[in-house]
């Protein structure tokens, strides 16, 4: 699991996240390091050999040496290509492992966060962290050490070879390095700010897409398509402005580096050329040196690039750390108290208090629901009925009081076990993309075809199921099913889950009375003798119940006979 550690500096934080994953691929990492060092060495030898070719071979008139050196050049060339291919393949393997590993950790973390987090965070914001920021960190975590290793190695080898050729020219090549470092340090805030702005705009654009796609039908019905296009254009404009600023920052800082290292090369040209013209230096040495100077400029620029890359990665790292700092509101207990099987489904709320902010939604809510009760829960909109269900399914824990299932406090029960025993069917159940079979298997991966068909039959979807319906696609937004069918499919899922407690949260509201009663009839048949809680504002639609409770002013009370439409009640 990805955990934030504010006591660590960002580079150490990045290492703490990346190291365990890189360690899992130790052999690949070793291959990448060895191959890239070999590649760098193969690339550095030719200028040295060129000097021998010119001074000893050509000027010295040794044809045999010229031919021998040409053969060595050929071997180096082919070897270089082979080494580079192998090195890149190994690098790809390592890089993918790190990217996927980091992303899986962030995803695992996201799956533990409470509904309140998802209610206040825009989808695109999460997407951009999950995708763009994780990729940025992964790129840096691998590219940077590789680039530093390669850069330092190449520089060291080049330095040794250059010093052996001419210490004076070597000093000239590195004369401008302090200026390059100063330029980098000065451009740092600029790079960081522009990257931050770009990531923010990119997240805003992702949010725009996520939210608009979900609301497409509403956009069409509201004749808002043109306005949405204008909205997208505005996002594009903002994104482009941020992108341009970020590119300008990179180009500016990178350009300055190139000019400075170009000046170093020019110095070598001028001084080396003058020395060779005066006969104080051999032509071969000057030729080799010019090649080394440009080659040494490469690693220097790479190191500068790493520094600039770090400014970008830092922004992404901070954004991932923010996400990792979001703590789950609940956790499964390390030593859960096992529920006695079969689970009876007896629920108890004892002076429960809960609020999202300072204001309490539930305050002193107390209720006993004996096993097998069919309970109707009524209450005004916003009274806290769905909140109560979220507490029962343990998306949150109460701030005071206790909730118990079969006498065991919910926070002591294994979370997965609790959610297996306490299933909620919503007013608009979530259906996953894929077929009806996929949707059923989502909650019951091991159920066989017979069990799936039985569940669909019991939920009143038998006709659809028998007409090859298991393979029927549900559609990306479950748009190919009617609302009644979606509810029945959700009920079939609940049947497969076989819980001790079933909760219907306004499930049948808005349906024709006969359809609502048919669905409730199916529930009563399948779940007879088990605890059922039906949240409703229309008691007629839930059929006969054992008890009615109203949630009012944060408490569970006997219903107000006027407000709960007493004439419709049929309590058994
Ligand atoms: P009901 O299901 O009875 O209509 P809810 O449980 O959905 O009521 O909401 C109870 C109260 O809590 C409402 O005032 C609602 O605005 C508030 N509420 C619900 N969810 C959140 C949330 N994620 N963050 C803040 N307040 C919330």
UniProtKB/TrEMBL annotation:
Sequence intervals crossing the membrane: 27-45, 65-83, 147-165, 171-191, 265-292
Keywords associated with the record: ATP-binding, Cell membrane, Membrane, Nucleotide-binding, Transmembrane, Transmembrane helix
Entry keyword annotation includes Transmembrane helix: yes
Gene3D superfamilies found in the cross-reference section: ABC transporter type 1, transmembrane domain, P-loop containing nucleotide triphosphate hydrolases
GO molecular function: ATP binding
InterPro entries (alphabetical): AAA+_ATPase, ABC1_TM_dom, ABC1_TM_sf, ABC_transporter-like_ATP-bd, P-loop_NTPase, Type_1_exporter
Domain ABC transporter: 347-572
Membrane topology annotation: Multi-pass membrane protein
Species lineage: Bacteria, Pseudomonadati, Pseudomonadota, Betaproteobacteria, Rhodocyclales
Family matches, as CDD domains: ABC_6TM_exporters
UniProt-listed Pfam families: ABC_membrane, ABC_tran
Locations listed in the record: Cell membrane
Membrane among keywords: yes
Protein name: ABC transporter ATP-binding protein
Domain ABC transmembrane type-1: 30-312
């Amino acid at each position: 699991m990805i955990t934030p550690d504010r006591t660590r500096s960002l580079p150490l934080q990045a290492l703490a996240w990346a190291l365990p994953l890189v360690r899992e691929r130790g052999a690949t990492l070793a291959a990448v390091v060895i191959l890239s060092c070999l590649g760098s060495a193969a690339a550095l030898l030719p200028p040295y050999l060129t000097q021998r070719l010119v001074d000893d071979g050509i000027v010295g008139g040794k044809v045999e040496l010229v031919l021998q050196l040409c053969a060595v050049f050929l071997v180096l060339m082919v070897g270089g290509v082979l080494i580079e291919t192998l090195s890149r393949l190994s690098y790809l393997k390592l890089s993918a492992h790190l990217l996927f590993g980091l992303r899986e950790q962030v995803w695992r973390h996201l799956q533990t966060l409470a509904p309140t987090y998802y209610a206040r965070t825009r989808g695109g914001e999460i997407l951009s962290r999950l995708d763009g920021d994780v990729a940025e960190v992964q790129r840096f975590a691998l590219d940077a050490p590789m680039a530093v290793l390669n850069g330092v190695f190449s520089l060291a080898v080049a330095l040794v070879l250059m010093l052996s050729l001419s210490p004076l020219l070597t000093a000239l090549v590195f004369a401008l390095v302090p200026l390059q470092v100063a330029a980098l340090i000065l451009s740092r805030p600029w790079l960081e700010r522009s990257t931050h702005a770009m990531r923010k705009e990119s997240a805003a654009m992702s949010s725009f897409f996520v939210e608009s796609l979900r609301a497409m039908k509403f956009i069409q019905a509201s004749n808002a398509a043109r306005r949405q296009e204008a909205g997208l254009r505005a996002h594009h404009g903002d994104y482009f402005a941020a992108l341009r600023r970020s590119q300008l920052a990179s180009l500016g800082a990178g350009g300055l580096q190139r000019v400075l290292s170009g000046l170093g090369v020019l110095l070598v040209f001028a001084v080396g050329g003058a020395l060779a013209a005066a006969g104080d230096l051999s032509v071969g040495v000057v030729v080799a040196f010019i090649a080394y100077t440009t080659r040494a400029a490469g690693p220097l620029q790479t190191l500068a690039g790493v520094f600039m890359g770090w400014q970008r990665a830092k922004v992404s790292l901070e954004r991932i750390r923010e996400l990792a700092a979001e703590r789950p509101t609940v956790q499964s207990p390390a030593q859960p108290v096992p529920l006695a099987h079969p689970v009876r489904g007896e629920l108890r709320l004892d002076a429960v208090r809960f609020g999202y902010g300072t204001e309490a939604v539930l305050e002193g809510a107390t209720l006993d629901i004996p096993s097998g009760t069919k309970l109707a829960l009524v209450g005004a909109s916003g009274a806290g009925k769905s909140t109560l269900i979220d507490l029962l399914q343990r998306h949150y824990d109460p701030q005071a009081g206790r909730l118990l299932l079969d006498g065991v406090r919910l926070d002591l029960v294994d979370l997965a076990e609790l959610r297996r025993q306490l299933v909620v069917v919503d007013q608009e159940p979530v259906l996953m993309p894929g077929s009806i079979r996929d949707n059923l298997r989502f909650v019951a991966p091991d159920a066989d075809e017979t069990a799936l068909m039985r569940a669909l039959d019991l939920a009143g979807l038998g006709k659809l199921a028998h007409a090859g319906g298991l393979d029927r696609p549900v559609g990306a937004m479950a748009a190919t099913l009617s609302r009644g069918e979606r509810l029945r499919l959700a009920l079939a899922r609940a049947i497969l889950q076989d819980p001790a407690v079933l909760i219907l949260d306004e499930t049948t509201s808005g349906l024709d009375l006969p359809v609502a009663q048919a669905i409730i009839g199916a529930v009563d048949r399948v779940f007879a003798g088990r605890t059922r809680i039906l949240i409703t504002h229309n008691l007629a639609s839930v059929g006969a119940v054992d008890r009615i409770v109203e949630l009012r002013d944060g408490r569970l009370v006997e219903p107000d006979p006027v407000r709960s439409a007493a004439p419709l009640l049929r309590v058994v």
